[in-house]
Specification:
The complex is a heterodimer of chains A (73) and B (965). Chain A has 73 residues and is mostly helical. Chain A has one domain. Chain A is built from four helices and no strands. Chain B is of the alpha/beta class and 965 residues long. In chain B, α9 packs across α26, α11 packs parallel to α20 and α14 packs parallel to α20. In chain B, 59% of the residues are buried. The chains are: A mainly alpha (73), B alpha/beta (965). At the A-B interface, α1, α2 and α3 of A face α16, α20 and α23 of B. Bound molecules: iron/sulfur cluster (3 copies) and FE2/S2 (inorganic) cluster. One iron/sulfur cluster binds next to α5 of chain B.
């Protein structure tokens, strides 16, 4: 996996965290709902792995969303 | 037959209008209150009932009494100059021109008497005495109203002789590549002048001089080519003689048959009669029965069709092992077998998800449907996307979230009832010209106009049209502006409280209201961000909110931003807040780019949705498809185009089937895209030309132009129209047939006899398309989806009594500035767009005479910025962003504001997308084409990328030529 791909995924996830608050729910949950709707399994897995190993570049809501990704161990 | 007043019967008259017939004067407009009041009269002893305001000529034509005429035609208002249409009205002295006299209750009209016959013959005699009698060799022979009328009135002799002063030898104007003006054949009926004003709204033509001296002139007495003329062709179509005539007819003679089909350029979806001799296309004439265009067109659809038979067409399948090898021409069988074997090998080695497909917005609904079916059923994954990713995917997301359906809410005709029109991030006169012409007519009749655009687009100031507000915001601040407008409306209590209370979800609204009322969303706070003074924002908001009917039209200047989806939701919020949804004259109107971008999205081209915008994770959505297709469908979304590129660079994505889409030119950050494409082990490109993407391909399948296949396109109004085959596919297969062959080679059986069978399958599996069939299209001409049991005739206006999602949803739309900010190093903002004569990546229009209007992409730069950099008009300048650089010629203009530069992307060598970055919309990954921080400076030569590209292209062309030898 290239660092470019991970870089993009981190940026996308943070962007979602900045923008996604459209309803009253918890912010991390909003992020997770959005990601589950639009991301592939492999994209979710890549970020989840990064979150486990490092995660420092993810905004708090983005980081907290990871545990709610669907179909990801 | 006696016709008495009966509104039902009268309405019947309206609905059976024959689009092939000229009724002499137009119908009373639907925004004219007279259109609903009927009056009865007697014409030649027949009774007829028509709307007040109708001309006697039209009333007569409706009961098939066709009064001779020359200066009247039903696309323009009557002028009453030729005096051929005289009729007698009982109780009135003398004769009246039936084209300019309107009906009145109880009138008794006679259209044919001995006296009238003499008068008409005399008029004709005068016309003919100044007209060359070379009918037999005239290009209009057989298609000339002057000839016809001479016959109708029984003209037998011309007493005046041709020796006197006349206009017979005036020089022709052949400056235009698509039509010729021969003043010698002009009868000065002024139909062309009125067509230019009333149909197109360009005001390029005038009648100069008086009496015998009067003549038609273009511009300030210029050649057509040098005037303001935008080559729409409305004047040519309106001209009753050979005075204005298509060059193709002059060259080839008159066509002998015609087929109604749909333009394959933009999302207006104009209906055309393709007029042919055998299978040779002579001319395209906009079809009056077309509900999107009502007989009008633009230069692309009417004239730019020569690309379809251009010698650059690749007509044989080709394969090669590596992109460094020459191509080998092969038969279809060998090509699809080669492709299928490679795809299966890749999947064996790298996994099921290592391949995918891209559907085309240029292709038909049926073809798009098949490609996504092939990906989901034969590839066995959801890695399918479409070029809408890079244009209107935020529309899909934003409108689905707020209103419940991923589509515009109106018809184009709805604009006729709009009182305030807001155009944001769209340039209709260039990108959606026929709709722009309709909008202009509405503006000429008094509607107000708000334009929000960083650039002074033509609508801001054009002949007789001027915007009431031009909010020239900084690129990337749409959300800030729209929020500020909503703030004004809420804080001044201008919202439609009743609509919001009855139609919208209350907790969401309350939450949004609290958010939008915060001072940080006020025009004062946003003035600095947007660059627009607070008063202007507030005044525009008031104008919008207080209109009886206000409509918003938007384009890629809204969607192609890091907050594209948010801006779409802002627009939906504004419309709901002011109750401007669910009837004519209002609504949220995305102006779609490509001809079938709406259709390709409807057909399940997105990796997370099956046809009809239903999510793949929902079991009940997948089930009918799984049963019908005989496969299991993955319940997780697939890769979007940018994700595919990233995965290709990581080595996890290796095979791509790309139909009718030039991603190497159209997608942002070209160098990144090229790297991804080079990493693929099997790239299958299906296109009519050897495009930029094909240079990286291993399999090339010849595509078919829209003239070579049957199917349907869906335009920006959700209108499904037929595309009809008028010639055999040059490459042997229509695009859907190629997909079928590839599927079968992959071992997934597809058997379709015709596109109509494919549409039947779509209708069976997609609730919003349930009622659609080729038979119904044949009957109705076109249908706007949803079309099902609840709406058997389709749905012109959506969300009438309730929103598709139930209650309208106000989404909180926080403004988040883009990362793409100006810096010391990159102090200017580049934004991109298109122009009228060229289409998208230009593959088609560059291969027609349209090229003369736009030989290269230029960089528009404000005089101040140019001066700071020592740049003169026409200089070659280097444009650099953080990802790449290219060189373009500079055009100095104050159309752009200081700090902003602008270019188009119609030519591959310009490399506009070498500079655009990988930034994208947060929700959909739609690229941020509209904002790139750049520096501009004088350049001595083309950029590195441009030189490298030139070399690579040359090599690839050699590889193609080797295949042919
Ligand atoms: S082609 Fe169109 S714009 Fe040009 S003169 Fe004719 S009507 Fe006007
Ligand atoms: S050019 Fe044609 S339409 Fe125009 S005034 Fe002459 S005859 Fe009429
Ligand atoms: S407006 Fe669009 S659809 Fe109509 S003719 Fe022009 S390009 Fe074709
Ligand atoms: S058609 Fe009525 S005056 Fe010419």
């Amino acid at each position: 996996m290239s660092s470019i791909e991970l870089e993009h995924l981190i940026k996308m996830l943070n962007q979602i965290a900045d923008n996604v608050l459209i309803a009253d729910e918890d912010e991390a949950q909003c992020v997770a709902i959005h990601v589950n709707k639009f991301w592939t399994r492999s994209m979710k897995e890549t970020v989840a792995q990064y979150a486990r190993e490092d995660g420092s570049e993810l905004k708090p809501a983005a980081l907290n969303a990871v545990s709610m990704f669907r179909n990801v161990n | 037959m006696l016709k008495t007043y009966d509104p039902k019967n009268a309405a019947g008259i309206n609905s059976t209008i024959d689009p092939e017939k000229d009724y002499g004067t137009p119908a009373v407009r639907i925004d004219d209150e007279r259109s609903t009041i009927f009056v009865g009269l007697t014409i030649d002893a027949q009774q007829v009932s028509v709307p007040r305001g109708t001309s006697i000529m039209r009333a007569a034509a409706l009961i098939n009494i066709n009064v001779p005429k020359l200066c009247a035609t039903d696309s323009i208002q009557a002028f009453g100059s030729c005096r051929l249409c005289l009729v007698e009205i009982e109780g009135r002295k003398g004769f009246s021109a039936s084209c300019t006299t309107t009906v009145e209750e109880g009138l008794v009209v006679r259209t044919q008497t001995d006296q009238i016959a003499v008068l008409r013959r005399n008029v004709m005699e005068l016309y003919i005495s100044d007209h060359p009698l070379d009918c037999l060799t005239c290009a209009a022979n057989g298609d000339c109203e002057l000839q016809d009328v001479a016959g109708e009135v029984g003209l037998r002799e011309v007493r005046y002789g041709f020796e006197g002063e006349n206009h017979l030898n005036v020089e022709k104007d052949t400056s235009h590549s698509y039509f010729t003006f021969d003043p010698g054949k002009c009868i000065v009926c002024s139909r062309c002048v009125r067509a230019c004003e009333e149909v197109q709204g360009t005001y390029a033509l005038t009648v100069d001089g008086r009496g015998f001296e009067s003549k038609i002139v273009a511009g300030q007495n210029e050649k057509f080519m040098g005037s303001e003329c935008v080559a729409c062709g409305a004047c040519v179509q309106a001209c009753p003689t050979a005075s204005l005539m298509e060059n193709s007819v002059i060259d080839q003679g008159l066509p002998e048959h015609s087929v109604v089909t749909t333009c394959a350029y933009c999302g207006v979806g104009c209906s055309f009669k393709a007029e042919l001799k055998g299978d040779q296309l002579v001319r395209m004439v906009p079809f009056k029965g077309g509900k999107a265009n009502h007989g009008h067109s633009c230069v692309k659809g009417r004239f730019a069709f020569a690309y379809a038979t251009h010698s650059d067409r690749v007509t044989s399948p080709m394969i090669r092992n590596s992109i460094d090898d020459p191509w080998r021409q092969v038969g279809w069988n060998e090509a699809v077998t080669f492709a299928a074997t490679r795809i299966r090998d890749i999947q064996k080695q790298y996994g099921r998800n290592s391949v995918g497909g891209i559907t085309s917005s240029r292709c038909t609904n049926e073809e798009t449907y098949l490609v996504q079916k092939l990906v989901r059923a034969a590839f066995g994954n959801n890695n399918v996307d479409t070029c809408a990713r890079v244009c209107h995917s935020p529309t899909g997301y934003g409108l689905k979230t707020t209103l419940g359906e991923s589509a515009g809410t109106q018809t184009f005709d709805s604009v006729e009832k709009a009182d305030v029109i807001m155009v944001i991030g769209a340039n209709p006169t260039d990108a959606h010209p026929v709709f722009a012409a309709q909008m202009k007519q509405r503006l000429l009749r008094g509607a107000k106009l708000i334009v929000a655009d960083p650039r002074r687009i033509d609508l801001v100031r054009s002949p007789h049209v001027e915007s009431d507000y031009h909010l020239n915001l900084l690129p990337g601040t749409n959300v800030a502006l729209l929020n500020a407008m909503a703030h004004v409306i809420v804080s001044e209590g201008l919202e439609d409280g009743e609509f919001v209370a009855n139609r919208c979800e209350q907790p969401a609204f309350e939450r949004w209201r609290k958010f939008i009322s915060e001072p940080r969303n006020s025009p004062d706070a946003m003035a600095a961000v947007t660059g627009i003074v607070a008063n202007e924002i507030a005044a525009a908001a008031r104008l919008f909110a207080t209109a009886k009917n206000a409509a918003i039209y938007y384009g890629l200047g809204v969607t192609e931003h890091s907050q594209g989806s948010t801006a779409v939701m802002c627009i939906a919020n504004l419309a709901m807040l002011t109750g401007n949804i669910g009837r004519e004259g209002v609504g949220v109107n995305p102006l779609r780019g490509q001809n079938n971008v709406q259709g390709s999205c409807d057909m399940g081209s997105f990796p997370h949705e099956l046809p009809g915008y239903r999510h793949v994770s929902i079991d009940s959505v997948r089930k009918p498809f799984e049963e019908h297709w005989g496969v299991t469908i993955d319940n997780e979304p697939g890769l979007r185009i940018p994700n595919m590129f990233d995965a290709a660079i990581s080595g996890n994505f290796k095979g791509l089937y790309c139909q009718g889409e030039d991603i190497a030119q159209s997608d942002p950050d070209t160098q990144h895209v090229e790297e991804a494409l080079r990493n693929l082990e099997c790239l299958i490109v299906q296109d009519i030309f050897f495009n930029e993407t094909a240079k990286f391909a291993h399999v090339f399948l010849p595509g078919a132009s829209f003239l070579e296949k049957d199917g349907t396109f869906t335009n920006a109004e959700r209108r499904i129209s037929r595309v009809r085959k008028v010639m055999a596919p040059l490459g042997g297969k229509a695009d859907w047939e190629a997909t079928v062959a590839l599927a079968n080679a992959l071992g997934y059986e597809m058997n379709y006899e015709s596109p109509s069978e494919i549409m039947d399958e779509i209708a069976e599996l997609t609730p919003t398309f349930k009622g659609v069939s080729f038979e119904l299209l044949e009957e109705k001409g076109s249908i706007q989806w949803p079309c099902n049991d609840e709406a058997p005739d389709g749905t012109p206006i959506m969300h009438v009594d309730e929103f598709v999602r139930g209650d309208g949803f106000f989404a909180v739309t926080e403004y988040v500035a883009t990362d793409e900010k100006v810096t010391k190093r990159y102090p200017l903002l580049l934004t991109t767009g298109r122009i009228l004569s060229q289409y998208n990546v230009g593959a088609q229009t560059r291969r027609t005479e349209n090229i003369q209007w736009h030989v290269e992409d230029v960089l528009e730069i404000h005089p101040h910025d140019a001066q700071d950099r020592g740049v003169n008009d026409g200089d070659l300048v280097q444009v650099s962003s953080r990802v790449g650089q290219t060189a373009l010629r500079a055009e100095i203009t104050d159309r752009v504001q200081p700090g902003v530069v602008y270019t188009t992307f119609h030519h591959p060598e310009s490399g506009a997308n070498v500079i655009t970055t990988d930034n994208s919309d947060w929700a959909t990954n739609c690229p941020e084409y509209k904002v790139t921080a750049v520096q501009v400076g004088r350049a001595a030569q083309r950029s590195n990328w441009q030189s490298k590209r030139a070399l690579f292209s040359e090599q690839q062309i050699l590889h193609v030529n080797e295949a042919e030898s």
